[in-house]
Amino acid sequence: MDAGAILITGASRGLGAALAKRYASPGRHLILTARSIESLSDIAAFCRSKRADVTVLALDLVDPDNVEAFQQARRALPLTGAGLSLVIANAGIFDGRSSAKNLETVDGQVRQINVNLTANIALLTPIAEEMKQQGHGHLAVVSSLAARQPQPDSPAYSASKAGLSAWAQAMGDDLIDAGLYVTDIQPGHIQTAQTDGHRGALPGLVTADKAAEIIQRGLARKKRRISFPLSIALLVWLGNLLPTPLRRLALKPYRYTIAQPIAGTEVESRER
Question: Which secondary structure element, helix H or strand E, spans residue 108, and what is its range?
């Protein structure tokens, strides 16, 4: 039976690469993206060694023209009868304050909103329209637990992920009658190269492989939301029940700065 193609953005490393490895199987068509095709060579080779059919495409969410060029290249792919069955929108950027004395820059904040929220909406909405026409499909966005507990040291990142989660929930409610599923993935900290620049506590840190395992299992069950690790998701829920002064006090041990802010480049985010 034709299971359809899977598109994973930000697949060159971290969570995106771990997801690609888990979905690589004989005959499965994987469409993997990153800012540069060259950066996908290793993960593409691994997936092909598992006898997956791999297509690599360049996608730079920072550049709206590049997003449109990607859409054209994607539509030109010779997909089989089931078409595109699953999209995991993993690519994004992360930034935060480099010093407790400074706020984030305006440019850095606007860029995070543009990439993490606006560009992902521009990427996914046309795909959702195509999935409606084919009568099936599954969209998944990699948001963050910061969507539910905004981080004082990364306000724009938190806002971008809160917006993405709200979009996913609304789209899920709208598209279910058309036979489509939308999943909001809300991870906590995931061990990637990005965590090396995180100056502060990393509670509940999980490996990219473990995160990919949890996500794949949740997507197979068509879950509307996948939040992990459970212990941190529970603390976030409890924290939102607290009066504001107590909630702020509870956040203090987890305040952080970023050693090398990364606005403007495709990275695996702090959670990814």
Answer: helix 106-112
Residue 266 pairs in a beta bridge with none
Locus of tokens 């449109």: 68
Residue of 82, 71, 92 whose CA lies nearest to 16: 92
- What pTM does this model have? 0.93
203-222 mean pLDDT: 97
Mean pLDDT taken over the chain: 92
b/e 58-68 (16+ beta carbons within 10 angstroms → b): bbbbbeeeebe
Q: What is the per-residue pLDDT for 264?
A: 38
pLDDT tier at 92 (50, 70, 90 boundaries)? very high
Q: Which residues pair with 86 in a beta bridge?
A: 6, 138
User: How far apart are alpha carbons 9 and 11 in whole angstroms?
Assistant: 5
Domain 5-258 is in which class?
alpha beta
As a whole number of angstroms, the distance between CA 134 and CA 156 comes to: 36
Residues in the chain: 272
Q: How far apart are CA 98 and CA 121, in angstroms?
A: 28
* Omega within 30 of 0 (cis) for the link into 152: no
Joined together, the tokens standing for residue 3 give 């299971």
79: pLDDT strictly greater than 80: yes
Q: Any idea what DSSP says for residue 259?
A: S
| β-strand pairing of 137-142 with 180-187 | parallel
Map tokens 């480049």 to a residue: 265
